[in-house]
Amino acid sequence: MTNAEQTLRLLRELERLDQEAEGNESSSSVAEVTAAALLEALVESGFNLTAAILGVRNGS
Amino acid sequence: MALEVRVVSKATGGLKIIDHIPPQRPCRLEGQNGAGKSALVRLLVLISGVQPYPGQAPPWRSLRTLVGQTVITINGLSGEHSSATVRLTPENWPFEPSESIGNWLGALTLDGEEVPIQRLFELLDVVHLSGTERLIDTLKQQSGCLAVALSDVADRLNDLDEQRAELGEMAEQLHSISPREAESERARWEQVATERRQVGAELQTAQQLADDLSRATALAALVETGDAAEHQRRLQVLREELQVARHRLDAAEANHNDAVTALAKGTTAQREVAKHERRLGTIGKMLDRLSARQEELGAHLESLQIPTDADLLDAAQQAALDSAFESALERQRRLQVQAARSHRTKAENRLLDDVCVVLDDAIQDGLGSTVLAKVNDQEITVNDLRDGLGFLAEVDENDLEELAGTTRDLAELTELKQLFVQRAALKEEDAQLRLELQRLEPKAAGHDELRKEAAKARAALDAASTEVRSHMVQIGALSRSALGGTDVVDVEAHIRDLLAKHDVQADRLPTALLDAQAMVQGLQTRDESLKSEGERLSANASRRRVLRETLRRHSESDESLKWLSQLAEVVTPAIGTAAGSVDWPDETWQRLADHVAATRNALSKLVNDVSGLQALAPQLPSQTTRLANAIKAVVEADALTELSAEPIADALFDGGNVRRVNLDEESITWTTPSGETRTRPLAAFSSGQQALGFMRARLQQVADQPVANRLVFLDEFGAFISADRRRPLADLLTSDDLRTLAEQVVVVLPLQSDYADELDQTTGALHEVYAERARAVAEHGYFTETFTG
Hints:
The complex is a heterodimer. Chain A is mainly alpha-helical. Chain A has three helices and no strands. In chain A, helix 1 (3-22) runs antiparallel to helix 2 and helix 2 (35-44) packs across helix 3 (49-55). The N and C termini of chain A lie far apart (30 Å). Chain B is of the alpha+beta class. Among the domains of chain B are: 4-134 and 691-786; 161-183 and 558-610, no CATH class; 354-389, no CATH class; 623-682, no CATH class. Chain B has helices at 37-47, 57-66, 118-123, 135-158, 161-177, 179-225, 227-263, 268-296, 298-303, 315-341, 346-364, 382-388, 401-440, 448-480, 488-501, 509-557, 562-571, 586-616, 626-644, 646-653, 688-703, 723-734, 755-758, 764-780, and strands spanning 4-9, 20-21, 27-31, 70-75, 83-88, 106-110, 113-115, 125-130, 371-375, 378-381, 657-662, 667-671, 677-681, 710-715, 744-750, 782-786. In chain B, helix 20 (646-653) runs antiparallel to helix 21. Chain B is elongated.
C-alpha cells in the first residue's frame, strides 16, 4: 500500500467520524470537496494542484 | 537453490557487517554482539527497496556515515538473472530516512550488466521477523508506518505551499466577484442607503436640537451674568459713535478734496503733490471698502482663529486660509462630480466607475505617475486622469443645495485671499506715495499754507477712516456674538421658546445640551461610517465588473490561468469552448467561485489533518480526539485483518473468528468455533507458547504470499525459544508447510556458548563442530552453518 493510500484510509476514517458526529447533516448549502477526494485527485495528477482542481469530485 | 550473500566493506567507525551468508537453507548465523548481524540485515532490507529505519533519523544517519565503500553480492537468484551486485553510494544518501528509495542508493549490476537499482527492488524481497516482536509491538509498528506515510504526503503538500497561497487569493477574488456576493452587497448597499437616510433625518433633528440648546445656553449665560444688558448698551453706544465718526469722515473727505483742489491750481510741484494726495485719498477709500468687506466675511476668519480686524496675514494665518480654501475646493469638486452623475446616462456612469476603479487600484499599486496618454503634447498620468475623472463642466452649481453652499464658501474664501493680497499692495503704494510726498514738499514751497492744509486734511481723513473702521469692527464682532441687538426681555422670551420647542426644563438645559451634542457626534460618526461603506460597496460593484473581465481574458491568454477557463467549461459545459468577448454567465462565475472555494477549504483541511495525524501517529495515540480515533480505527482494522488470517486464527484463537481489536482497552475479542465470545488482553499473547504460536503464524502468513528470491531473517529468537524447541523450529522451516517461505531463511542467534572453552569437554562429532565454530568465531566473530535446531 502506498503512502498516499495509507493517508487516504486515515482521511476517510476521519470523514466517517465527522459524519457520525454531525449526524450526517451537511452544514453548507454549497457542495463540499472532501480532503480525501482532493488527495485522490492530487495523487492522480502527480500532485499538480490545478489539474487536481479540475479533476476533483465534489459533493454536487 | 538457496541464496548466498557476500559483502565486501570498508565500513568505518567500528561498524562491522557479516561478510557471508552461505547458500545453506535454513542457515544458522550465530555470533558475538557487534559482529555485524543487524547491520547486514538492515542493508539487505535497504537494497530490497525498503527503508530499514522508517522515521528513525539517528540510526539512519549513523549507517549513512559509517557504511563507507560497501559492495553486496547476492548469488543464486532465480529467474532471468542469477547474480546481483550492489555498490553502495552512501555519499549520495539523503540526510533524512526517506521512505522512497531511489537511485541515490547505489549502482546495480545483474550478471555483470549495469541496470537501474530499482530493478533489484522488483527482484529481491527481504523479510525481517524479530522474535521479540509482540502483538502490541506489531500494532505500534503499524502506527509508525502510518506516520511515515503521513510524513511523505505532508512533504508533498508542503511543496504546494506557494500554489496553495495563490489558490487562496483566487478563491477570494472569485468570491468577491460572484453573483451571490454581488447580491449580498447590493442588498447591503440598499440597507446602508436606507439607514443613511434615517441617520440623516435624525442628524438634522439632533443638530437643530443641539443648536437651539446651545443658543439657549449662551443666551441664558449672558442674561444670568448681566452681560446681556451691557452688551446691548455697548452696541447702542457703538452705533451712535459710528454715526458721529461717519459725519467726521464725510467732513474730513470734503476738507481734503478742497485742499487738494486748491493745491492743483498751484505750481507744477504743488500739482504733483495734489495728485499724490488725491491718490492717497482714493487708496484710503479702497482700504475702507476692503475693511468693510472683510468685516462682512469675518465669520470665515473667526472660524480659522484669525482676528477679523487682521490687517495683513502672518505665515500661519495665511496657511490656515490656504488650507480652508483647498478644503472647500475639494469639497466643491466632489459635489460637482456627484451632481454630474445625475446628468449622465447609466452607461456613462458605469464607464466612469469602471475607469475609476482601475485608476484607484493603479494608484494604490504605486503607478500614479505612470503616463497613460499624450494629448496635444501634454502627458496625462494616472493621477491626472483620476483627478479630472467625472467632471462635467455644464453642471449647474445650484443643482444641489450643498453644492451651492460650498460654491459660495469657496467664492468668499477666494475673495478673502484676494482681499489680503490687494490690501498688501495698496499699503505698499500708500507708503510709497507718502515717501514721495516727503520728497516733494520742499519743491512745493511758496504756497506753504495750501500744502500744509492738504496734509492736515489728509491726517484728519486718516484719523476719521481709522475711527469708522474701528467702530465697524466692534459692531460686527458684537453682532456676530450670541445676543446681537435684541432686547433682554426678548432674549428671555426667546430662551423660553427654544426650551419649550424641545420640551426641555430650564434646570436640565446643561445635561440636555451635552446629550444633544453627544447624539450629534454619534450620528455624524455613524453617517461617516455609512457613507464610507456605501462608497466601498459602490466601488466594489464596478471593481467586480472589471475583475471579471480581467480574469476571463487572462484565463484565455495567461498560461498559468488557463485552468480557470477549463474549469469554467467543466462546471458549466453549456458555455462551450468558443473564446470571445462575451462575459461568462453568472451561473458560471458562481460555480467557479463555489468550486475553487470548496477546493481551497479541502486543501486547508487536508493539510491540517495530515499535519495533525502526523504529529500523533509515531506513538500509538491514547487520546480520544477525532485524529487519534482515526489512527486507532485504521490500526485496529489492520490488526483485525492480520489476526483473522487463518494461520494466526488457528494458532492463537483456536480457529475462531476475531471480532474486534480494541486499542483503548488493549484487548482482542473473538468467537470460538462453538460460538462462545472471548476477550483477552493483548499482553496475554506475549510470552511462551503463545508467542511461538504467533511467530509460526507470521511465518505462515509470509509463506502464503509466495515471491521469488525472498530472504527471511528470524532475529532474536533465542530469547524465548528454548534450546529444546529449536529442533521443532528447524523442522518447521524445512517442512512442506513452509516450502514457499523463502529461498533463504537465516536464523540469527547471539553467541550461545564459549565454544573454545568447551572444546575440552566435548568429543567426537560435537568436538569437531565446536572446533570449527571456535575457529570461525575467533577469526570473524561469528559462524554460519545449516540450522538443525
